[in-house]
Structure formats: structure tokens, C-alpha cells
Design brief:
Distance between the termini: 15 Å
CATH topology: Rossmann fold
Number of domains: 1
Strand content: 15-25%
Helix content: 25-40%
Order of helices and strands: EHHEHEHEEH
Number of helices: 5
Structural class: alpha/beta
Bound molecules: 3-dehydroshikimate
Number of strands: 5
CATH architecture: 3-Layer(aba) Sandwich
């Protein structure tokens, strides 16, 4: 039976491809979405991006209420500040993979302490945009048990 995987993206990720390419590369968000769908095989991907904290929270609620099998989330800047995102993820029943394009631990100190990592099943950071495909594949392996 096909499962649904939610791939959720936070603020400024709509600018991928033209946003600090020396850090985030040249891959656009649309190309990232295609990478996720290719990695998902027969599983259904819900792929979303928002610049608003409350929308991200509501999408996490939707993943929870709809019985999504797993979440890949790049909360972007909300990673380090958002208790509401953290609290919403605590309500999710399945595996959560926190994804960062850059290696946040090799950047400025403000990017070093993720609130989300405390509830994430796993964290992927520094693989560039290909990290999304790695996250989706890894989530599927976790779901296969
Ligand atoms: C993306 C962002 O927008 C930053 O705020 C994070 C993350 C890093 C990333 O590497 O995908 O600090």
C-alpha cells in the first residue's frame, strides 16, 4: 500500500538556486522536489515550502492528522528558534528526518543549536540538495523496518 511522505520546507528555501549559492548550491526548490519524488518510488510525496511559522506548524498537524508515514523537514531558520514547530513535531507519530542542505555545525554559532534535533529520528546536514533524496530513501528504509 502506498504511503505518504511529507517533505516540509521553511523560510527562504523558495529562493534556492539564487540564495547564497556558495552555501546552498544552484539547485532550485523545484529541482529538489523532483529529487524527492524520484527517491520516493511508489510512495506519495507531499512537498511544501512556506516562509511562515504558523503555516509550517499547520502542515505538521496535517501530516499527523492524515496519517502520513513520515516527515522530512528542513525548518531553515525556524530550526533554531521555533518552539511551535518543535511542539508540533512532538505530536507526530512516525519517523522525522531533519534535513539541512549545509553543515550547520560548520557555520556561524547561531546555526549550531537545533531545537528540532531533540525530537528528530535522524539529522542530515551538509550533503547539499542531494541530502533530500538521501533523507527520503532513508525514511523509506526506516519504514520498511
Ligand atoms: C537553511 C536555512 O535557511 C538556514 O537558516 C539554516 C538550512 C540552514 C540549510 O542548510 O538547509 O541555517
Amino acid at each position: 500500500m502506498a504511503r505518504t511522505i511529507h517533505v516540509l520546507n521553511g523560510p527562504n528555501l523558495n529562493r534556492l538556486g539564487k540564495r547564497e549559492p556558495e552555501i546552498y548550491g544552484h539547485t532550485t526548490l523545484a529541482e529538489v522536489e523532483a529529487l524527492c519524488r524520484a527517491a520516493a518510488g511508489e510512495d506519495i510525496v507531499v512537498f511544501r515550502q512556506t516562509n511562515y511559522e504558523g503555516q509550517l506548524v499547520e502542515w505538521i498537524h496535517e501530516a499527523t492528522d492524515s496519517g502520513a508515514a513520515g516527515i522530512v523537514i528542513n525548518p531553515a531558520g525556524l530550526t533554531f528558534t521555533s518552539i511551535p514547530v518543535l511542539d508540533a513535531l512532538k505530536m507526530f507519530h512516525g519517523p522525522v528526518i531533519e534535513l539541512h542542505i549545509s553543515n550547520i555545525h560548520r557555520r556561524e554559532p547561531i546555526y549550531h543549536r537545533s531545537l528540532v534535533s531533540g525530537v528528530a529520528t535522524a539529522v542530515i546536514a551538509g550533503l547539499g540538495a542531494r541530502g533530500y533524496a538521501t533523507a527520503v530513501r532513508s525514511l523509506r528504509e526506516l519504514l520498511e523496518g
